[in-house]
Amino acid sequence: MAEKIVIIGSGPAGWTAAIYAARANLKPVVYEGEPSNIMVPGGQLMYTTEVENYPGFPSGVRGTEMMDLFRQQSLRFETQIFTEDITSVDFSSHPFKLKSSEGNEIESLSVIIATGAMANWLNLPNEQRLAHSGGGVSACAVCDGALPAYRDKVLVVVGGGDSAVEEAIYLTKFASKVVIVHRRAELRASPIMQERAKSEPKIEFKWNTVITDVLGDKVITGIRIQDTISKEESDLECGGLFIAIGHTPNTSFLGGSIELDEEGFIGTRQSWRTATSVVGVFAAGDVMDPYYKQAITAAGTGCMAALEAERWLAHKGLT
Ligand code: NAP
């Protein structure tokens, strides 16, 4: 028998969708994903240290603990969880057909895609080690920048897009100095953001520069950089490194079955709606949001997707 609703993904969007769908008696089935070396159930928050900007946690909460609490809350109602990936989908007929990494075939009347996006990393071994241990390397300045560990330090942001510039400006509130390291001599960011960054006295630029290593044992002490023109290497002392080189949405398993924007994010049909190009399939969280990318906005769109799916199922007489 077909499920009423399958939710793919287990970040704030997926769990919030599950809580709402479960309380609407839809008996949601969540595919929370399999742990791998690039992603674990719970998504990007599992790589975040302290979350201080999610309302309801006045003293902050660890990202891992927060995702565990979300998961527990979904289990309190009737949510069924599978620790498997959905590896392919067939949305060409209804009920929709999904295949899991264990080889199971699932049929569902509606689907919420909440598979998130992965921050792009430089993929340097010491960058990954210090990011996972909370040692001063992060892919989200808004999430981590206000932590005491970064106060009054020289902070480095790598990237030349709007995110890098925005994060650098944000970090000037806490840092003694912010250095933007960019691989070219020209920013990709919008002119207004460029202007703001260039007129901010605390921001310096290292042009035509790539990072070749991250230094420090338990916490970051600096980065090794290389001038792309002279090929000269040098070390730059810093107390934090923020990677802002874009995000990759987790949509490859969809195999072209749904409309994506040019960056691979799921396009929704209307603003303030989560319905996708396939009627009965909804999207929530970072997989459909290249702009805000926050836990709270992901949770918000998870709620929206569940309500929209519930209303659609009711409208079709499928509940
Ligand atoms: P982005 O525009 O794709 O910029 C990524 C930056 O990272 C580029 O400057 C790129 O360099 C650099 N980069 C990529 N791979 C790299 C690598 N391996 N090593 C070193 N540098 C690397 O990404 P984004 O800044 O996250 O922005 C994404 C979208 O969101 C954009 O459309 C942006 O306008 C939007 N956004 C808007 C705002 C705002 O309006 N306030 C804020 C944030 C984001 P190159 O330039 O050399 O390619």
TrEMBL record:
Q: How is the cofactor bound?
A: Binds 1 FAD per subunit.
Q: Which InterPro entries match?
A: FAD/NAD-bd_sf, FAD/NAD-binding_dom, Ferredoxin-NADP_redctase_2, Pyr_nucl-diS_OxRdtase_2_AS, Thioredox_Rdtase
GO CC terms, sorted? cytoplasm
In alphabetical order, the GO MF annotations are:
thioredoxin-disulfide reductase (NADPH) activity
Biological process, per Gene Ontology: removal of superoxide radicals
Question: Which reaction does this chain catalyze?
Answer: [thioredoxin]-dithiol + NADP(+) = [thioredoxin]-disulfide + NADPH + H(+)
**E.C. number:** 1.8.1.9
* Gene3D superfamilies documented for this protein: FAD/NAD(P)-binding domain
Q: Where is the FAD/NAD(P)-binding domain?
A: 4-302
Could you say which cofactors this protein requires? FAD
Question: Which UniProt keywords are present, listed alphabetically?
Answer: Disulfide bond, FAD, Flavoprotein, NADP, Oxidoreductase, Redox-active center
Protein family = Belongs to the class-II pyridine nucleotide-disulfide oxidoreductase family.
Q: How does it assemble?
A: Homodimer.
Q: What is this protein called?
A: Thioredoxin reductase
Biological source species: Candidatus Scalindua japonica
